[in-house]
Design a protein that fits this description.
The chain has 51 residues and is α+β, with helices and mostly antiparallel strands. 22% of the residues lie in helices and 25% in strands.
């Protein structure tokens, strides 16, 4: 139980049942993040989207 409270592991079925909860796992697409490469004068050399 202390491992769950500390966030080191997920609660097991017994804990979920005792709390009246059920496990719900979802996967969500990451939003791309724009990154850029600049030269020493601040001129943009390259831009790309990073996932």
């Amino acid at each position: 139980m202390t491992e769950v409270l500390a966030g080191r592991c997920a609660p097991g079925e017994a804990i979920l049942l005792a709390l009246g909860l059920e496990r719900d796992v979802r996967y969500v697409a990451r939003r791309p993040r724009e990154i850029a490469l600049y030269d020493e004068h601040g001129v943009t050399l390259l831009t790309a989207e990073m996932l």
